[in-house]
Specification:
Blueprint (H helix, E strand, L loop, with lengths): L2 H23 L3 E3 L12 H6 L3 E2 L3 E5 L6 E4 L2 H6 L7 E3 L3 E5 L4 E6 L11 E7 L12 H4 L3 H26 L1
Bound molecules: copper (II) ion (CU).
Copper (II) ion binds next to loops.
Length: 172
C-alpha cells in the first residue's frame, strides 16, 4: 500500500475515534437535587423524573455535614428507609457516584429521620446509546465538571491514536 493511502486510513480512523469520543464526552454529571443539593427540602422524585441517567454519567451529592449518603441495596430497604443495611456510605460532603451499569440504584441520607422526611433518591440508569428527553444539563452545573471528562477523553484519544498508528505500521 502507498504511504499516502496509509495516512488517509489513519486520518479516517482518527475521525472515527473522535466521533466515539464525542459520545463519551456527552456523559453527564448530575448534581443531585440541583441547586438545593442533597437536603430535606429537595423533592428528589421530581428532580430525578426530569432527567435521564445513562451509563457513564455520574451523580454528585453536595451536602452539609449534618447529612450523609447511604446507598441501599434493595427497593425494600429504600421503601423502609433501612439505612442500617446500606451497601455503601459516604459523608465527605461532595460524594461522586459513577453510574457504571444499567439498573436501579437507591440512596438515602444516613442521618436519623432524614430519609423518612423524603431525603432519598431512586434512579434508573439506562444504556448510554438510548437518548432521553433531557440530554442537556444546565450549563452552570456541567461547566465545572466537563474538564474531568475531557481529561479522560483526551487520554482515550491519545491511547487510541497510538494503537491505530501501530496498527497502520503493521498493515502498511
Ligand atoms: Cu440528611
Amino acid at each position: 500500500m502507498e504511504k499516502s493511502a496509509c495516512n488517509m486510513l489513519l486520518l479516517v480512523g482518527c475521525v472515527g475515534v473522535l466521533l466515539m469520543l464525542l459520545e463519551q464526552v456527552s456523559a453527564e454529571q448530575h448534581i443531585v437535587g440541583g441547586k438545593q443539593g442533597w437536603d430535606q427540602s429537595t423533592d428528589f422524585d421530581s428532580w430525578a423524573s426530569g432527567r435521564t441517567f445513562k451509563v457513564g454519567d455520574t451523580l454528585v451529592f453536595k451536602y452539609s455535614p449534618m447529612h450523609s449518603v447511604a446507598e441501599l441495596g434493595s427497593e425494600d430497604d429504600y421503601k423502609k428507609c433501612d439505612v442500617g443495611s446500606a451497601t455503601n456510605s459516604m459523608s465527605d460532603g461532595n460524594s461522586v457516584v459513577k453510574l457504571t451499569k444499567v439498573g436501579t440504584r437507591y440512596f438515602a441520607c444516613g442521618t436519623a429521620g432524614h430519609c423518612d422526611q423524603g431525603m432519598k433518591l431512586k434512579i434508573t440508569t439506562v444504556s448510554a446509546s438510548s437518548s432521553g428527553p433531557s440530554s442537556s444539563t444546565p450549563s452552570s452545573t456541567s461547566s465545572s465538571t466537563s474538564g474531568v471528562t475531557r481529561v479522560s477523553g483526551s487520554f482515550v484519544f491519545f491511547a487510541s491514536t497510538l494503537v491505530m498508528s501501530t496498527l497502520m505500521h503493521i498493515l502498511c
